[in-house]
User: What shape does this take?
Amino acid sequence: MFLKLPFALLVGAFTVMMLKAHGQDQSDFISIDCGQLQTKEYTEPTTGITYGPETVDIVDTGVSKPIVVSDPRQQFQFVRMFPEGTRNCYKINIKRRQKYLIRASFLYGNYDGDKDLPEFSLHLGGDLWESVVISNASSEVVKELIHIPMRYYIHICLVNIDKGIPFISTIELRPLHKDTYQTESGTSLALHSRINMAANKARYRYPEDVNDRIWSSWMSETWKKINTSFNINTDKYQLPSLVLRTAATPKDDSIKRLSLMWQHSVNATYHFYWHFAEIIKFNSGLSRYLTININGKPSYRAIPQYLSSRTSTGSIAVGGGPFNFQIYSPPTSSYGPILNAYEIYTEKKLGSETDQQDVEALTNLKSTYGIIKNWQGDPCYPKEYIWAGVNCSYSDNDSARIISLNLSSSGLTEEIAASIFNLTMIQTLDLSNNKLSGQIPEYLSQLPKLNILNLEKNDLTGSVPAWLIAKENDGFSLSLCGNPSLSGQLPCGKQKKKKKNQFVIPVVVLIIIVSWVSFAAALVWKSKRFRAYWRLGKDSCTESENGQSSRGHDVFLSFRGDDIREGFARYLHDALDKNGIKTFFDDQNLQKGDEIGPTLVNAIEASEVSIILFSKNYVTSSWCLGELVHIIDCKNKNKDRRVVPVFYKVNPSDIRNQSGSFSLQTWIDRENVKVPVWKEALVEVANLSGYHYTRGYESETIEKIVENISGVLKQMKENSLRRFDTICPEGGEDEIVIYTTSSARDKNFQKCQTIIQSLSQFVLKVQQRDVTIRKFRKELKKLMKKDMPPPRVFVHGRYVGGYDEVSRLITNEPWFCETLDKIQKRDEVRLHGRDLVQQEDASSVSVSETDPGGRGGSPV
Assistant: This one.
């Protein structure tokens, strides 16, 4: 008896064996399966290419959709479509100044059932790359570009031009040799055609081509194929031997030319790469001598070498109309011309970018404040898609610069972010009508171009800085009204001449005010509610709308960067990472300013375990102390969270008593109002069991920590549903229930369908409760204690979340998919057991397939 395996599986296995045999390396390949719901990498069986899923740091917009038409290639089973926003972008980290082949592929596959095929624009950074026109639902459109990025990332953007919803299937980047595909101007090259001559419709890519170029075949009726079975030695362009083994030559030996012609409608500069390899062995001293003509003008010469490839290159700028090149051999030659393969590219002038420092400043602002504006791609380019609230200045020779930033009414909280200091060309800054707190920072005085500053209607404190007063007297436009805790005469936006003594406060009055404030603060600090408020300036351990913190990492590492970032902390992070434990590590020194920002707050809340590395200078950082407070606060709110202290060359008693290097006297002298909360957190964490390192091999301590954390996480993941709130729909104790809508007019209809489809991959049945039915609408409102839009998902009596939460869990959290798989296996056992009972006792009552358990709703 023989085991029958699918042919594709056999081909895939053979491909993988061949890859290992030839040692071909994908380590620098970037292959992204867009829209894929799986959270792990996979190897595509026909090519052996490893594709990875999208992550939120690559793209955070769009919706995953499965295609409808049949296609055997795994990377084309889903697309990511972008129904919202004009421009949506992928940000992909790469090696700066590395030459890449960048490929974007689009297989429509009738994913949306729309009869009108879409058309949209594809951008690289701030420049148009190509227009994407879908003409056949079953065929992919491929766009390729050879480009050298000047930064450590690229933006690939899809732009809606009102001709259908943009979508994408795959993004692939392949490093190329720096001496290949060169242009005098250093411009980028967009693929026009890449042809393998006389290859009988064969199509090659990786692993045959180590650079994963896709070779299509073409053959004129007036040509014939010649070939060899010998391998061809390749040049720096590294063409596949399979491509070079075949060549085209005229059928009629008396004809001494090969001609190719095409039409083009726009002015363009074409770049040609003709690949030759002699595959016929001539008598000694004989060779083919070839001349290459472009539009009738002799331009280049080539002499093919036996079983060795040579590449000839050329370029020409042309206007619209017919275009051709011809390859001649001399009339007296006994041998006609040959051509093994060719590539044609059009020149693209790309590289419109905003100044790097300005981009990083805005990116940090977006991260710090959680700005929800559609800030994607380059801030200033293209000019028609400039970021909301941003104005730029442009120069022919330099990068664009940010000169104006309007974040009024953007929900900003905490202090004014220090990253604004990096906007060195900014002239106008509007941060009005937010909830910004703290003092007006001194660094604003060092912005040389700033002449308009609007800070109205915030919660700023302290007094108006002297430098601001001086600037306003010199014509600087300043608006500070609506800050009740800000002392001094507050200008409201109109430039006025101020009297010299307008901001002078009598010393006696000032002393009285300071004394009163200090006394009031001492009283207020006795209030537990006020202390809790100061833990983060708000109710800490912020939760999402489903009542649960978003999960992104297994472990959060808190440490004093100046002490141990490049030592113990990094070694511990690497050890955790090697054991498959996702660990948040502040590798970019996010600890700037006095308050921890949303990035670290979210990282703490997204982690199951927090490891606090106490070192000598830990308490000299208010940021570290803020992390500590938030970690302890989250632990006290959720008993499933674990906190593990590590005492690195410090004494726990010093932490418990705030003595030695852990004294808070410096902060007390500065009258920092958070000192009492810091003390509470230090005492609490010092009483937890942890790990001590004083001397010896650090690796031994790290090994023990990793072993412990692995066991803790394993135990937690076995009880993974415990992390969700216990909110159980009637009859939902052992079921998966989704509150959905059957109304196609409902704006949430598509989201509901997406979640239902996603869940159906993992579980046998899902109860759908349609909120267009009054009973279920009231039931959902009662469960959530307020009106909330569908979809809403409950798993075995636990509330998992809405569309955003469930999508993220399925896409980014393997443990959640594993939980669903376990549920499916239990359901399979339960159903199988029921079938056995029914076979043994035909009189037994069967469970309704339209109403599992008789509890209402319909299964998927």
